[in-house]
Amino acid sequence: MEHTEILTRYTANFVDELVKSGITDVVISPGSRSTPLALTFTEHPSIKEWVIIDERSAAFFALGIAKQTKQAVALICTSGTAAANYFPAIVESHYSRVPLIVITADRPHELRGVGAPQAIEQVKLYGDYVKEFHEMALPEGTPEMLNYVRNKAAHAVYIAQEGNPGPVHLNFPLREPLNPDFSLEAIWEPTGYGNYERIYQESLDGRKRLTTTQIQLLIEKLQSKKKGVIVCGPQVDDDFADAITALAAKWGLPILADPLSQVRSGKHDKNNIIESYDAFLRNATIRKQLKPEFIIRFGAMPVSKAYLFYLKENKDVMQFTIENSAGYREPTGNITEFIFADAVSLCKDLLSQSPEIGFDEKWLQAWQDMNHIAKKHLLADVEDKITEGEAVRALVDVTPESSSVYVANSMPIRDFDTFMLTTDKSFTVLANRGANGIDGLLSSGIGAATAGNPVTIVSGDLSFFHDMNGLLAAKHYQLNVTILLINNNGGGIFSFLSQANDKKHFEALFGTPLNIDFKHAVNMYGGKYILAKTEAELKELLKKSYQENGLHVIEIQTDRTDNVDWHRGKWLAIEQEILKGKE
């Protein structure tokens, strides 16, 4: 075979095996060296390609698709710094356990280290942030090498999704000429293999489960205790809420549910769910009153810093952390027993094998009473000018059934923690809480919108500014996205921290006001912009945006200092009523 046919069959077999392994979406950033891969993906009849020019935005866009669909997404770029721009999203993918197949085109080996343009060191570029790296062989057209390239494709998808999901990196050295020939016959099949079905054996991967003996040992450790807490941190298993709430109801235990746990919303029983714990665990006296005898945590660490204080103050308490496959997520350093088992199966096994177990009813009631007080204050009052907490409260009230909300880090996710109260409405809450950065928010949320369900992105002004390039995808693909832009003209979360006391340097180093009129940016990307001034007005504008197509940005403007005072006023009122009742 001559070069072009070899190149065509090699890349076509690779792409086809990715598709056979379950890849349905590829995000492509245009470039020259990646031409064979980009064109072949686009030519394949069973894959959807998304072309995102900015590589940093492209990687977060792919991350958003993967988070929403819970499936691996392929990502392609050319050689050089294009690949380096993927790095922030790959870090997030690693820590938030999201599967990506990262495919970087590269110069062939003879053009590396000799001063050739657009040639950087791409071998193991992402270090330990990928689950596996493989330097692909130069294209060959023999049956053995077509088998090889299919093998590597299928293996990459399996590795990305097995155990704790994450990114896998494949680096493709490619020689010129780079244009494939799609007029060749049977390019999606390995030459020399008749009646082809599959070259690489499909992998079947089961879930971890404790034995009956292990379940009984766990129950024995708990049954002598009376006061326990179940904690549900960020996770995305759709079946988890039913399983954990059934277990909590049987045992009579409170569930401290993070907004990213997918437990606060849905049709399941919510009687034991304590969603406002962040508001009252801020008080040290209340934390002492609620000292548990054991803590069982599912999912990642919750957003709440108040819960972190609660955990640190109870180092002597028996603690269990449940991980579906593997990993160590315990930043306090507390002595913790790790249980590696599928969370849903574990809940069902504990439920079926603990018929006699039960805990202190007054303990659960104490949590429920405090939660009721907190919710009363969080729902009370409507300000003349909308506050950041009210904005989140309004969004939760009107976001559509079966929609997704993609929440920024810093203040927005903390306001979601406080003001997202339990609801029978089912919707998903997503955030980039792996590395907790503000970068890539808009791209991630817009990527999530490709699944077709309504998506609302909750963004601060700094997160919006940091990823404005991401808006191009919404314009280009006419995606339906609503962005709630909470503009406090700077880094609002720093106003809650000790840095706010440094009046000399605070605004320049931490407050960082932008003084930008975002309306012009929204118009540039073909979106519809409007400013909301009250909670009622925001609700109506949000509802209207969900009934129309395209990109909608609804901005509210707040003052950072007023925001701190308003939040602290709410927390103080909650604490005072709870402590007064304990006198």
State the helicity in percent bands. 25-40%
Strand order of the largest sheet: 2-1-3-4-6-5
Poorly predicted runs of 5 or more residues: none
CATH architecture of the largest domain: 3-Layer(aba) Sandwich
> CATH first level of the largest domain: which class?
Alpha Beta
Class by SSE composition: alpha/beta
The number of helical runs is 22
Largest sheet: 6 strands, parallel
The Rg value, from CA coordinates, equals: 26 Å
Could you tell me how far the N terminus lies from the C terminus, measured between alpha carbons in angstroms? 87 Å
Mean pLDDT score, rounded? 94
Domain module count: 3
Please state the overall shape, judged from the principal axes of the Cα atoms: globular
Kindly identify the CATH topology of the largest domain: Rossmann fold
CATH superfamily of the largest domain: Thiamin diphosphate (ThDP)-binding fold, Pyr/PP domains
Percent of residues in β-strands = 15-25%
- Counting DSSP E segments of at least 2 residues, the number of strands comes to 18
Structure overview:
By secondary structure, the chain is an alpha/beta fold. It folds into 3 domains: 3-173, Thiamin diphosphate (ThDP)-binding fold, Pyr/PP domains (Rossmann fold); 212-368, Rossmann fold (3-Layer(aba) Sandwich), CATH 3.40.50; 381-572, Rossmann fold (3-Layer(aba) Sandwich). The protein has 22 helices and 18 strands. The chain has helices at 3-20, 35-43, 55-69, 81-84, 87-96, 143-161, 212-222, 240-251, 277-280, 284-289, 305-312, 343-352, 361-379, 388-398, 411-419, 441-448, 461-466, 471-477, 506-511, 518-524, 535-546, 560-581, and strands at residues 25-28, 48-51, 73-77, 100-106, 132-135, 167-173, 228-232, 255-257, 273-274, 294-298, 318-323, 337-340, 404-407, 428-431, 455-460, 481-487, 528-531, 551-557. The chain has a 6-stranded parallel beta sheet, with helices on both faces. It has a 6-stranded parallel beta sheet with strand order 9-8-7-10-11-12, covered by helices on one side. Strands 14-13-15-16-18-17 form a 6-stranded parallel beta sheet, with helices on both faces. Strand 7 (228-232), helix 8 and strand 8 form a beta-alpha-beta unit. The longest helix is centred in the last third of the chain and has 22 residues, at 560-581. The protein is globular.
